[in-house]
């Protein structure tokens, strides 16, 4: 009876180790096309590798490969996602700072808004738009 239980545990561990390798490879390959989802896939690979270990102190060769692939895929996709998000924010903020056309459009919008209301634009709004225009010129001239 003990032998059958050991065989069942070993077979279960082998299945989880294979799943860890599969998910690890998918997380590595997925970096090329859908990298924001790959931390989830890589995380599952890590979990399967840990489960495959069972009660033993060491990972099987296959589980070790799956764990390694999953960790590399997860870290690489996280770095890529964070890097691209950071670059997008930087680029957008820089574009807003140096875009004179945007400031002109904002000025026109607020002038039309206050004309429709039937009042003049408050001096504070004029000052804010003037400062924005000045900052835009400063950034553009750098």
Protein architecture, described:
The chain is an all-alpha fold. The chain has 2 domains: 2-85, no CATH class; 98-141, no CATH class. The chain contains 5 helices and no strands. The protein has helices spanning 2-29, 38-53, 61-97, 100-117, 123-141. Helix 2 packs antiparallel against helix 3 and helix 4 (100-117) packs antiparallel against helix 5. The chain is rod-shaped.
Helix and strand topology:
Blueprint: H1 2-29, H2 38-53, H3 61-97, H4 100-117, H5 123-141
Q: What is the overall pLDDT average?
A: 84
- What pattern of helices and strands is seen along the backbone? HHHHH
- Regions with little confidence, pLDDT below 50 for 5+ residues: none
Rg for CA atoms: 28 Å
Q: How far apart are the first and last residues' alpha carbons, in Å?
A: 79 Å
Major sheet characteristics: none
How many structurally independent domains?
2
Supply the number of helical segments.
5
Shape: rod-shaped
Question: Which strand-content bin applies to the residues?
Answer: under 5%
Q: How many individual β-strands?
A: 0
Helix fraction by DSSP (H/I, runs of at least 4): over 70%
Overall SS class: mainly alpha
